[in-house]
Amino acid sequence: MASRFTELSVDCHDPERLAAFWCEVLDFKVIDRSEDKVEIGSWEPTVEDVRAGQMPPTVVFIQVPEGKTMKNRLHLDVSPIDRSTEDEVSRLLGLGATRADVGQGPDRSWVVMADPEGNEFCVLRTLAPQN
Fold first, then answer.
1. Can you tell me the mean pLDDT for 29-48?
2. At residue 127, what are phi and psi to the nearest 5 degrees?
3. Is residue 88 a contact partner of residue 35, using CB atoms and an 8 Å limit?
4. Integer Cα distance of 89 and 79 in angstroms
């Protein structure tokens, strides 16, 4: 049997703040929390479910003392499902995201952004039904 991708961990200063931001972005909910970490997901994993088949991973925000120092080597990509890419970028800016420049150039089909602690992520093409 293989391993399963069960969690993506993100080091941060304020797990509660980032969890709240990403819950709004992804329509996730908090599924676990402790003094220095918050886990969010679209479902509450059980050992039986994970063993039965690959399921969407959860995201765990873990408090660390050091700050972000360089461009992320790993980042999330999100695709809007019910609005245009431009409208989703506007929504995310309203939630506290910022536009980011990682050297991507001006003519790209995606938008690079950063969450409230500066972690880069990309907004890709819309998956909304086209009329």
1. 93
2. -110, 10
3. no
4. 10
**7-63 maps to which CATH number?**
3.30.720
- Against a cut of 0.85, is the pTM above it? yes
Q: What is the pLDDT of residue 1?
A: 54
All CATH 3.30.720 domain ranges of the chain, comma separated, are 7-63
HEC profile for 67-82? CCCCCCCCCEEECCCC
The answer to whether residues 46 and 61 touch, using CB atoms and an 8 Å cutoff, is: no
Map tokens 């420049």 to a residue: 101
Report the C-alpha gap between 107 and 124 in whole angstroms: 13
Report the pLDDT value the prediction gives residue 47, as an integer from 0 to 100: 86
Q: What does the block give as tokens for 47?
A: 């050992």
Antiparallel, parallel or unpaired: β 58-63 and 37-41: antiparallel
Q: What proportion of the chain, given as a percentage, has pLDDT over 90?
A: 68
pLDDT digits (tens, 9 = 90+) for 4-19: 889 999 999 999 999 9
Which amino acid, 74? Answer: L
